[in-house]
């Protein structure tokens, strides 16, 4: 058990000592992954709802596509975004490479299919339940999609959390498009990878414990908020 | 529907916050460099001194030398700071770099099990490699086109070992950076070629120790090159040149010499001024 004692102590010392660099890294992780999740929700949820209630050619193909893209390899997304944002790439003129913005873009691409696929499932379930009712009220499919999205908003928070979990945990994409620059694009996962490279396994594991704790805390807050919102607005 | 409007405006507010967060414009250059300079802690020592003197922040992307040069070829760096003379000269000859300047050196060492089953210990790198190959003792290769990988391949060739034929289960091509490769070597108790800086800073050593060191062939030169603004007009020429001028200046060279781990100097400045 000795392997786990030292990291636990180190983790506690880092947190108790209110290490400023660690705080910066944690905040950047949260900022990047929350922004990416938000973008993914704004894009992915309407797509998911339309896939659930819509009737158009290629719909089934799109459903399979989005389900499949839930397994997008982060390193491939990172590489694609890198080539897009590189100075020699089509969007190179904006100089976005190696910035938090580049990391947000990459993670948003990674998370959007997850949010869309999970949203489709939630909306499809309530669509089969309320279909006749909505039809009898004369709601168009677009209108029905919006209504069901709103109706399922509490269940959809799980889709958002799943997306957020994927974003904050991945290292492949942010490493490539962020470059792991100290103080600029260094986030929790890239720091852990770096400390592992240096052979400082106890510190790497300590940071891992902190990351897991942060993710748990976010989920606890989201759960509490959901309960509160359901009581007030539900 | 009030709550719905509230919900949507809260969402929009979050979006604006995320977009507007901390976008302070600071003066900086991007340097593509090697994992050895970053992971040995040299940059952590050197850059704050330069930043204080010049007011220019240096953003380091640490990659293998091959990848660092490729990144600069695409125009994603202002300066490259690497260690593979042949590849650097090619980079300049292709017109991607303005001029190569030598900065400092350290040396490569062969790391291996302290028990040295292949009897490779000594000063002669070529003899050491021949013995490792003859014993088919586990050997970990970076295999990532880094400066260290290029050096390793040169030594095998000079030792008269044809890797294509000799390769077997004993030769592990890991395709990873210096640190991860050392982690692999530590867990397999294998031999590996490493740069001394990364080794000195490396914590997870297991039963490994230095097996071969001190051969003049193990000399490892670092060079610095400004990316050619003629190829990539957005290159921060003035600030990049300032950084180069500083690392080869008396102040920069002194700062390099002062970096030590456990009393041992990691890099030896040798810029020609």
Global outline of chain B: globular
Portion of residues within helices of chain B: 40-55%
How many structural units, i.e. domains of chain B?
2
Task: Specify the CATH class of the domain at 31-189 in chain A.
Answer: Mainly Alpha
Flag low-confidence runs of chain B.
none
What is the CATH first-level class name of the largest domain in chain B?
A: Alpha Beta
Structural class of chain B: alpha/beta
**Main interface by residue count:** A-B, 30 and 35 residues
The assigned CATH architecture of the domain at 31-189 in chain A is Orthogonal Bundle
Number of helices of chain A: 10
Give the rounded overall mean pLDDT of chain B.
Answer: 91
Write up what this structure looks like.
The complex is a heterodimer of chains A (234) and B (273). Chain A has 234 residues and is an all-alpha fold. Chain A has a domain at 31-189: MetI-like fold (Orthogonal Bundle). Helices cover 80% and strands 0% of the residues of chain A. Chain A has helices spanning 2-16, 20-53, 59-69, 74-85, 100-136, 141-151, 153-169, 172-178, 188-197, 201-233. Chain A is globular and about 65 Å long. The termini of chain A are far apart. The model of chain A has no long low-confidence stretch (mean pLDDT 93). Chain B has 273 residues and is α/β, with parallel strands linked by helices. Chain B has two domains: 28-105 and 221-269, D-Maltodextrin-Binding Protein, domain 2 (3-Layer(aba) Sandwich), CATH 3.40.190.10; 107-218, Periplasmic binding protein-like II (D-Maltodextrin-Binding Protein, domain 2), CATH 3.40.190. In chain B, 44% of the residues lie in helices and 24% in strands. In chain B, strands 1, 2, 3, 4, 5, 6, 7, 8, 9 and 12 form a ten-stranded mixed sheet that branches. A two-stranded antiparallel sheet of chain B has the order 10-11. In chain B, a hairpin with a 2-residue loop joins strand 10 (260-261) and strand 11 (264-265). The model of chain B has no long low-confidence stretch (mean pLDDT 91). Classes of the chains: A mainly alpha (234), B alpha/beta (273). The A-B interface holds A 31, 34-35, 38-39, 42, 86-89, 92, 95, 97-98, 104, 150, 153, 179-182, 184, 194, 196-201, 233 and B 3-4, 7, 11, 14-15, 18-19, 21, 30, 35, 39, 44, 59-62, 73-76, 177-180, 182-183, 186, 201-205, 232, 234.
């Amino acid at each position: 058990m000795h392997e786990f004692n030292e990291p636990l102590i180190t983790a506690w010392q880092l947190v108790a000592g209110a290490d400023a660099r660690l705080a910066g890294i944690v905040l950047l992780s949260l900022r990047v992954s929350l922004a990416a999740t938000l973008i993914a929700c704004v894009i992915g949820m309407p797509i998911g709802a339309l896939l659930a209630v819509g009737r158009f050619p290629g719909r089934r193909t799109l459903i399979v596509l989005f389900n499949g893209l839930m397994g997008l390899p982060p390193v491939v997304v990172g590489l694609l975004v890198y080539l897009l944002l590189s100075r020699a790439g089509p969007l190179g003129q904006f100089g976005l490479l190696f910035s938090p913005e580049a990391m947000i873009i990459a993670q948003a691409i990674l998370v959007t299919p997850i949010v869309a696929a999970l949203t489709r499932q939630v909306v499809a379930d309530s669509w089969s339940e309320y279909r006749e009712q909505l039809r009898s009220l004369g709601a168009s499919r677009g209108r029905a999609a919006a209504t069901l999205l709103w109706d399922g908003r509490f269940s959809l928070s799980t889709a958002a959390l799943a997306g957020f979990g994927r974003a904050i945990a991945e290292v492949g994409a942010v490493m490539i498009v962020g470059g792991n620059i100290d103080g600029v694009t260094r986030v929790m996962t890239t720091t852990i990878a770096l400390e592992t490279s240096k052979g400082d396994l106890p510190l790497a594991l300590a940071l891992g414990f902190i990351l897991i704790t942060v993710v748990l805390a976010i989920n606890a807050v989201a759960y509490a908020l959901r309960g509160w919102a359901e009581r007030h607005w539900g | 529907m009030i709550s719905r409007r509230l919900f949507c405006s809260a969402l929009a507010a979050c979006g604006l916050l995320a977009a507007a967060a901390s976008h302070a414009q600071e003066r900086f250059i991007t340097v593509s460099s090697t994992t050895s300079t970053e992971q040995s802690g040299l940059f952590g020592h050197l850059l704050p001194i330069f930043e204080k003197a010049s007011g220019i922040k240096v953003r380091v992307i640490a990659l293998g030398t091959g990848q660092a040069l490729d990144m600069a070829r695409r125009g994603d760096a202002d300066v490259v700071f690497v260690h593979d003379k042949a590849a650097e000269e090619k980079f300049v000859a292709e017109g991607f770099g303005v001029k190569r300047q030598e900065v400092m050196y350290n040396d490569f060492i062969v790391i291996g099990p302290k028990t040295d089953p292949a009897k490779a210990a000594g000063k002669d790198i070529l003899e050491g490699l021949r013995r490792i190959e003859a014993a088919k003792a586990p050997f970990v290769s970076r295999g990532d086109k880094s400066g260290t990988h290029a050096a390793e391949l040169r030594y095998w060739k000079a030792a008269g070992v044809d890797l294509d034929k000799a390769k077997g289960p004993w030769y592990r091509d890991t395709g990873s950076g210096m640190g991860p490769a050392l982690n692999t070597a530590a867990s397999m108790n294998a031999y590996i070629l490493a740069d001394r800086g990364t080794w000195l800073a490396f914590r997870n050593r297991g039963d490994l120790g230095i097996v071969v060191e001190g051969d003049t062939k193990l000399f490892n030169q670092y060079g610095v090159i400004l990316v050619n603004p003629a190829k990539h007009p957005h290159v921060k020429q003035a600030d990049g040149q300032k950084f180069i001028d500083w690392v080869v200046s008396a102040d920069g060279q002194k700062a390099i010499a002062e970096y030590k781990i456990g009393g041992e100097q990691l890099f030896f400045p040798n810029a020609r001024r």
